[in-house]
User: Which sequence fits this backbone?
């Protein structure tokens, strides 16, 4: 198969345990881009949190794409054009904030290059800030401030307590929202239907690329849909079991250049490299 696109989850897939792209993985992706392979970075991170890795891989030069917020936004890295955007309706903001107060948990959301929160001293808010290299901005009255749609909210607390909160929030918000924990201490609230595979289907249509011509690599539950959807679904060795079971191929771990192995085996070898 002549693959035309590779879609990469970030944490646990493209980056190693130190959250960096290793030299071999970077070299293989740069060589593949020179030969026409489109690179898409697909993450639950906000767009600005993905940009440093996009810049490192020179996606602007090679017209790669960022899929952020688990499929809420797709951006063309060359033109900076937003090709797709799905956000929470403004009228949902106050309802979600009221739930956070009722459950006595801190909350955050995003505005450009900032993370908005009621409590910038929350240790989990600091983790989100560190992962994405975005500054925390304290907003005393989020109800009044958030008069615009946002991609998602995160409720923050210790995992044991947040498990209880998750069940109650799901019961209240019902079928109109997607509610899940991406980490034990992060409870995510997104528009219903946000999904990496659905988002990628729209991107492929825009680019006139068939799903059979796409490789998707991931390790987590939020990667499952795109791995099932892709022509070649690849699980990292460190992936959760459902992802490994669904994959067409299991590569090496994120600490052992698993992405480089895939690029070399399924793309670069066609060029004798």
Assistant:
């Amino acid at each position: 198969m002549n693959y035309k696109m590779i879609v990469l989850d970030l944490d646990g897939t493209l980056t190693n345990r130190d959250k960096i792209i290793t030299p071999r993985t970077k070299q293989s992706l740069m060589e593949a881009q020179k030969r026409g392979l489109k690179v898409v970075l697909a993450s639950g991170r906000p767009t600005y949190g993905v940009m440093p890795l996009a810049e490192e891989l020179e996606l602007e030069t090679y017209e790669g794409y960022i899929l952020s917020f688990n499929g809420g936004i797709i951006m063309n890295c060359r033109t900076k054009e937003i090709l797709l955007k799905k956000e929470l309706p403004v009228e949902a903001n106050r309802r979600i904030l009221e739930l956070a107060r009722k459950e006595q948990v801190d909350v955050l959301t995003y505005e450009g290059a900032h993370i908005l929160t009621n409590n910038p001293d929350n240790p989990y808010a600091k983790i989100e800030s560190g992962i994405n290299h975005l500054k925390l901005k304290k907003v005393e009255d989020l109800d009044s401030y958030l008069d615009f749609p946002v991609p998602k909210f995160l409720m923050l607390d210790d995992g044991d307590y947040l498990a209880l909160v998750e069940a109650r929030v799901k019961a209240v918000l019902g079928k109109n929202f997607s509610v899940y924990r991406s980490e034990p201490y992060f409870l995510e609230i997104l528009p219903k239907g946000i999904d990496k595979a659905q988002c990628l289907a729209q991107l492929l249509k825009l680019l006139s690329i068939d799903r059979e011509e796409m490789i998707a690599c991931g390790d987590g539950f939020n990667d499952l849909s795109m791995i099932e959807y892709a022509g070649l679904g690849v699980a990292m060795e460190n992936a959760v079991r459902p992802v490994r079971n669904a994959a067409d191929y299991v590569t090496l771990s994120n600490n052992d250049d698993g992405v480089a192995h895939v690029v070399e085996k399924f793309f670069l070898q066609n060029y004798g490299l």
